[in-house]
């Protein structure tokens, strides 16, 4: 890739593009696939990647970004753990003259010029798809229908928007009631723990579980089985992501539906960096197209699944 201002020639060294990427953590299989995709795509390109994992700490993301400024990277990309609190650090980056690409989750800032583009999924639509699935699945089941919700990380875009989309759709049925809703940080361990507490409080009045990601759903399945109920039968389960493990549970009938959220954003990120360096104007929002899995489509998909 040619860097603007540098002529190619036998005696001219091409300066590699330096990309600093602040990954928010390694809390889920989605995240691990996302990290791998970004590392692989960078390796295949002429971009050198500086990678930092913040282990779900916004403070550590700030430290990573500051270290990228010090190292004078060409571009900074951030997958932000939560939406709020980014304005001051993004101003520091702007002052240093480094462009920012937000990936996966969004930041809430009053000045939209603080980042160039946001690459990621439509989480609100994912929540709506989950809600529609539940409406369809229970269309002929008389209420009351008790629902519990495992939310992701508090204050994170996917958790806020998936919850909003889901709640809006299910209000169509006045005999649907959300009995419990709590954050479980997108992890297997907390998913299991929080589901156990839901079961202790609500027992067999729980007919539906909406989990904001697969890892929490897998944890919840263990809690449900330990409680003596059948996941996918006594409790309808709908989850988001589409990891291999979740698709396997879908095929076993222990999860009823999985809304897809694609973690393979590496190619999109590298393309965006290259286009930006080439001086092209990027759209403010780059959305990744996604679908929803049922038992039938899961069987088809699982053979080629990379995560
Ligand atoms: O759904 C979840 C992960 O931000 C879209 O974060 C991502 C979410 C994903 O922990 O599994």
From TrEMBL:
Looking at the UniProt record for this protein, which Gene Ontology cellular component terms does it annotate, in alphabetical order? cell envelope
- Reply yes or no: does the keyword Phosphoprotein apply: no
Q: What is its main location?
A: other
Q: What name does the UniProt record give this protein?
A: ABC transporter substrate-binding protein
InterPro entries in alphabetical order = Peripla_BP_I, SBP_2_dom
Q: Which GO terms describe its molecular function?
A: carbohydrate binding
CDD domains attached to this UniProt entry: PBP1_galactofuranose_YtfQ-like
Keyword field = Membrane, Signal, Transmembrane, Transmembrane helix
Localization per Swiss-Prot or TrEMBL: Cell envelope
Q: Using the record's annotation, list all stretches that form the Periplasmic binding protein domain.
A: 22-280
In its keyword annotation, does this UniProt entry include Translocase?
no
């Amino acid at each position: 890739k040619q860097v603007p201002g540098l002529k190619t020639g036998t005696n001219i060294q091409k300066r590699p593009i330096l990309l600093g990427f602040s990954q928010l953590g390694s809390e889920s299989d989605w995240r691990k696939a996302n990290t791998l995709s970004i590392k692989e795509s960078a390796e295949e390109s002429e971009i050198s990647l500086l990678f930092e994992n913040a282990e779900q700490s916004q403070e550590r993301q700030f430290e990573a970004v500051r270290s990228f400024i010090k190292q004078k990277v060409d571009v900074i990309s951030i997958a932000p753990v939560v939406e709020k609190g980014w304005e001051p650090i993004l101003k520091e980056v702007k002052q240093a003259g480094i462009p920012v690409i937000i990936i996966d989750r969004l930041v809430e800032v009053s000045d939209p010029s603080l980042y160039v583009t946001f690459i990621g999924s439509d989480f609100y639509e994912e929540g709506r798809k989950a809600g529609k699935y539940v409406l369809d699945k229970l269309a002929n089941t008389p209420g009351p229908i008790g629902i519990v919700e495992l939310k992701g990380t508090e204050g994170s875009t996917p958790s806020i928007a998936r919850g909003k989309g889901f709640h809006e759709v299910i209000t169509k049925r006045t005999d649907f009631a959300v009995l419990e809703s709590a954050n479980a940080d997108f992890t297997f361990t907390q998913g299991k723990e929080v589901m156990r507490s839901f079961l202790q409080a609500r027992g067999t009045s729980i007919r539906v579980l909406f989990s904001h990601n697969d890892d929490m759903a897998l944890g919840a399945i263990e809690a449900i089985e330990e409680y003596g109920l059948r996941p996918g039968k006594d409790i309808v389960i709908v989850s988001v992501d589409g990891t291999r493990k979740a698709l396997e549970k879908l095929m076993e009938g222990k999860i009823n539906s999985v809304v897809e959220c694609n973690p393979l954003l590496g190619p999109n990120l590298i393309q965006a960096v290259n286009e930006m360096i080439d001086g092209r104007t990027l759209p403010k929002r780059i959305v990744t197209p996604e679908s929803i899995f049922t038992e039938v489509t899961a069987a088809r998909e699982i053979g080629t699944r990379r995560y």
